[in-house]
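ok trying this again, last paste got cut off
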Amino acid sequence: MKDTALVIMAAGIGSRFGGGIKQLEPVGPNGEIIMDYSIYDALEAGFNKIVFIIRRDLEKDFKEIIGNRIEKIAHVEYAYQELDKLPEGYEKPEGRTKPWGTGQAVLCAKDVIHEPFVVINADDYYGKEGFKKIHQYLVEQMDENSPVFDMCMGGFILGNTLSENGGVTRGVCQVDESGILQNVTETYEISRQGDIALGKDEQGQSVEIPLSQNVSMNMWGLSPAFLDQVEKGFPEFLDSLKEGDIKSEYLLPKIIGDLIQEGKAKVAVLETKDKWFGVTYKEDKPAVVSAIRGLVDQGIYPERLF
């Protein structure tokens, strides 16, 4: 079987690790966190390696809470995302505290990713279908020798990804009739308003979005060669920053969207009907706990995962 990796972006976890950090809130019947369910689903789908992208200062605590446990059941590698992990000749701007974004996160893992991989957020529950479809694509369909980057993504239905407790950010996708991504636009503060959703674009203008719209949840199926492109583009991103800009991020949806517009990438959208769960707001936790309990009661997950 072809080797494939699950890459989890977990460097955004706060410095008081375990002290009320949303990514580590127990949501399962035996104290499982959301990451546990993603790992369980990925291993079940056929992925055989886990890469955790974390911050160096959190390594000890991270391993105690989840890493050491997962190392007993899967091949685990660690990569470290830091603000000063920049190309030669670049320095962290004074006052910058915000992480450099998902593009830099996967770039930090370049040395430990040698196989096709799926990348996800640590604090999102994706469901089983997306992992199965992406693994099948990576193993059976991806052409790593294609002249354009061959990629795929989990395409979630917007109405299945909204919080009842406030707005969320999603990559709104334009998909052609053959299921190929044409464009992805980061859209902010999206919330349900009756039979539609309302959000804001990058300029802060209000936009209306159908609840049936495909959206990206940062669940991308990628090849190791793509990381060379990310590495090439990072200095270009840094050069584009205006003086005093300490917040702009190097983001996967923007990187991939630009490649699509330049004719350098083809992204198959693999639609999933699974419902997203996440603790975006503290008020979300009871609903997530209840939803996981329901999945356990239905036999979709065992009472104790590992």
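PB: full thing came through this time. Helices lie at 34-45, 59-71, 102-108, 128-141, 224-240, 252-261, 285-297.
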